[in-house]
Amino acid sequence: MPTFGLGPDGTRTEQGLCLSLDGRVTYEGRKTIPKTVNRELLAELRATAKELRKAVPAERFRVERALATERIWRWRDVCEHFLDHPVTGSIARDLIWEILQGPAGLPVRSEGGWELTDPAGRRIQPFPDTPVLLWHPIAHTVQEVRGWRDHLIANDLRQPFKQAFREVYLLTPAEERTRDHSRRFARHLLRYGQAKALLTERGWRDLSLGHWGWLYGSGQATATKELPGGLTAHWDFHLDEHSFDRDAGGTASICVSGDLRFTAEERTVPLAEVPPLTFSEVMRDADLAVGVTSTGLDPDGHGAYWESYGFGELSESAEMRRDALARLLPRLSIAARCTLAGRFLHVKGDLRTYKIHLGSGNILMEPNDAYLCIVPSGDGDQVFLPFEEDGGMLSIILSKAFLLAADTAITDPSITRQLR
């Protein structure tokens, strides 16, 4: 990863112009850049800023992939290529690092370079050749995981992706019975183009569906992902019977998810034999695909699937959302109006009491559970989250909660006519 000319503080300053890690170019702290600046230098910095805006998300994803694959480094390499690097360091310094089969901590600077510190404040000094890896909650006790989550919240520490709050997927009784395949994320209606793009970004391939050769199998496909240890994950998809008419024979808009299984050397591997972290991360991919691309998220949806997804049982990602909310709510100005109960966040307004589903973000109004349609605006209250999620569902739920807690102040006619 290049440094892009950035210094240890994540900036590059020349002739009053400043390039920062977030890809912005400013002049002496001002957004407006005077015409008298060196135009050649300005053009160079803006071109570098454009590259930087692409590089940072890619590097964040690369580091997250190292977490998911249990990659091991020597501590000296972590310090040199991660913690001291102006770009990668902005990601790595907010993550929990673990000595192999030993203690874990967040990086802190010391006179000799870098140390690790745990939630209790204890310092850990790895030797240069000490093997370390990124901490993953699946390998730790509930008490340890809870300790790290509480520590992040109490100290307003935001991680570049979910680590302490990462979802953990264990074998369910249903999967123990089916033995060699999982139907946990089957029978979901997904927006095909969006699902394909998301899975491709996360290392899946071969998901290709369409109406061009229906008789020859173009309505069925299996997405695959190569995994550590010679394993391959397979996730089946197909087009439903209404697909051709729905899309007038054009590009497929919706696909249906199917079974998920694992193979090694073309042999189906029983789910119980898949390493727990590998299994968990594959299931997390599937949960993410469903959670982001399900048609059950459509504000104006209808039908049995929309009803089931929009108000049904919570997935692991939604349960994690609930855990984060339980820690965040006491810190919010609307805490007295909010209660977590089962699958919903209950919000007491002055006009009605509302139930926001923790999986879909859909809203029901008491006392008759009437559906309230609110399209997320993306510009709601900014609330501290212990991880970056780029406008994800937790942000949407919190934005809706703030809006509904002050329901008498709502002026949008598309909402007010539903409240009375």
TrEMBL record:
Pfam families: DUF4132, DUF7737. It comes from the Bacteria. It comes from [Actinomadura] parvosata subsp. kistnae. Residues 318-419 form the DUF7737 domain. This is Uncharacterized protein. Residues 30-204 form the DUF4132 domain. InterPro entries: DUF4132, DUF7737.
